[in-house]
Amino acid sequence: MGTRIDAAFAQAGNGGRRATARRLADAAARNCLALAGRRPADVDMLINVGIYREDSMGEPALAALIQEDIGANLGHPPAGGSGTFSFDLLNGACGVITAVQVESGLLSSGVIRLGAVVSSDVQPDPENHGAHFLRSAGGAMLLRWDDSLTGFTDFSSETFPEYEDLFTSGLVWRKRSGIRVPRQGTGRNQMTVTVKPGYHARLADCAEEATRRFLTRVGMSIEDIDLLIPSPCAAGFLDPLRARLGIPGDRVAYTPEDLEGTHTTGPIAALQAAIKSGRLEEAQNTLLVAAGAGITVALALYRQTPP
Amino acid sequence: MAETTKTQPAHWLTLQSNGSGGPRGCRIESVGVKLPARRLTTADLMSRTSHRTRIQLERLTGIHERRVVGPGENSFTLATGAARDCLSHSHHQASDIEMLINTSITRSKGGSNQSFEPPLSLYVKQAIGATRAVNFDLSNACAGMLTGVFVLQDLVARGEISCGMAVSGEYISHLSWNAARQIRSIFSKQLASLTLGDAGAAVIVERAPDGAGIDVIGFTTLAEHSRLCLAFPSSVGPGAQMYTKSRTLHKVAIEDMAPLVAETIGEAGINLADIDYLIPHQTSARAIRAGTQEFVRQLGAKPKHVVVNLEEYGNTSSTTLFVALHKYLEEQKMRKGDRVMLLALASGIEIGIAIFTIDNLVDSYGHTH
């Protein structure tokens, strides 16, 4: 008995004006529900893990807007009905795995029956080229309880704060210079992203260390892993990680070119590739690994074996 | 392929109770706050608006003053201060904390108005020495802290962790200053921004050895109304601006709250009159009074006491429930066996309700008075 991945869908933005974080997330959620043959009303919990939005909105949670857009249990709470609970979870590139951990637990407790994890990011500040570090994309995955397989069994999240300054991002107030124009703002909150040299190399170091510790904890070796679903998929991270772990290329889910460079959507993009190729279905033991700012490394073991 | 066999009883709320989760109970072990020393009265704030507004904010909301940050204070320092205060009331060490969730809307730190990555929770856990804790941030508007407790409750009940902390540092008064620059009349959508105050709060959730503690906790998102309160980075000054259709938001919330409260007390097997202290989200005294009257109209009962601390602190966003709980614990108003209902209301519209029984939590408070 365990949490099963019902469906996963990821799509890159086309760069047009309509590719806002909300619209990308909406489209991914709708497509994912269609893939699974589910209705929006079936979703008991919707967690958004996207970070970068065109408007950097602080509240409400973007998840609430997505819930409204896809039409999941809108209206007044009638007695005996069923609602949806939506919120945002922010853990950078590791957000998907953390959200899966939260929903997997609630599925196991019977608190929810169908959980959705939605992600999306767009270039946070089109005017600021220094903040261009990601490919706009949206993703969604659905999770449900299944009596016939083991599903997600173990999770881990490890931080390496000695590298916390290698990747930082935040809004900084910049006062507008020059002549003041009536009705124009006096400045703006500008997204500042700093990626220091060696970030990807340190990501690979930390991911290797955390993966080895995780496998030891769950009593497995790298030979037991049939499929590795990594994020990010950048060669500077993935190649050294794969080589050091000693996992052959045919046991790695590679993200297609059009979805390379996505941020929080990374794990869903790789997962979608594994589902499409049929490799997820064939794998008994699948390891999801994501690494990002912090440095944070999140891992999840997904087992398609009888319980 | 086997179908889903786990079914939850038909609730509108996503609900966890002592019976629905794992084998273990879950309790609130300690609560901590960090309030900035600087006070700002409503009269002072309203005297600094750019336009002559004629708004009688204090009469309208019941807010006399609020705390605002001084130099060097921000979301991070408030969250860290609250986490340390929480540990000072706890029998746990920082190293016992297995999960730390930062739940604030604002995430200012150092020169940044809003830190995105790494999550603020990483900095908080490093600052307090909770090096063993898994950390992440969670954002759910003013319902953030209670959402954090909701997440921790499931992990504790299933035995995945034995001790977790939800923390929030809200340096949110910049919304008031930005609103003060633009607001012209009582009909302004930025009116609610003038009610905000700064505060940090933290709560430790742990296994309840005897199964007591949190009886039930439930949440829902009434997303049809998700656009009634929106906050964005400001273009008139550092920080953010918030636009709220306050009347509509309160009307919807007051109408829909009662059936959700009925679900929660039904799950707990009690009557609303059995609640000793209702701690609602602190928006305005009028709205809280109207909500309580609606409970009487729809449910035929009301709690014994309704906690209102707006006069001193204003609306401290995601921390309001725990700032109020901490104050009542410190003033020794609550006693063992008292039943408390926390009622979160937030942009989304998010509604969260938790019912718990006061246990030896009270023993760690009141000695400073």
Describe this structure in words.
The complex is a heterodimer of chains A (307) and B (369). Chain A contains seven helices and eleven strands. Chain A is an alpha/beta fold and 307 residues long. Chain A has three domains: 2-74 and 82-148, 3-Layer(aba) Sandwich (Peroxisomal Thiolase, Chain A, domain 1), CATH 3.40.47; 155-161 and 197-303, 3-Layer(aba) Sandwich (Peroxisomal Thiolase, Chain A, domain 1), CATH 3.40.47.10; 168-195, no CATH class. In chain A, the strands form three sheets. Chain A has a five-stranded mixed β-sheet with strand order 1-5-4-2-3, with helices on both faces. In chain B, the strands form four sheets. Chain B has a six-stranded mixed β-sheet with strand order 1-10-16-15-13-14, sandwiched between helices. In chain B, strands 2-9-8-5-7 form a five-stranded mixed β-sheet, sandwiched between helices. In chain B, a hairpin with a 6-residue loop joins strand 11 (229-233) and strand 12. The interface between A and B is large, with 80 and 84 residues.
Q: State Rg of chain B.
A: 20 Å
- Widest beta sheet: strand line-up of chain A: 1-5-4-2-3
Task: Pick out the low-confidence regions of chain A.
Answer: none
End-to-end Cα distance of chain B, whole Å, is 62 Å
Instruction: Return the average pLDDT of chain A rounded to an integer.
Output: 91
Broad shape of chain B:
globular
Q: What is the number of beta strands of chain A?
A: 11
CATH superfamily of chain B: Thiolase/Chalcone synthase
Overall geometry of chain A comes to globular
* CATH-derived architecture of chain B: 3-Layer(aba) Sandwich
- Largest protein-protein interface: A-B, 80 and 84 residues
How would you concisely characterize the structure shown here?
Chain A is of the alpha/beta class and 307 residues long. Chain A is built from seven helices and eleven strands. The model of chain A has no long low-confidence stretch (mean pLDDT 91).
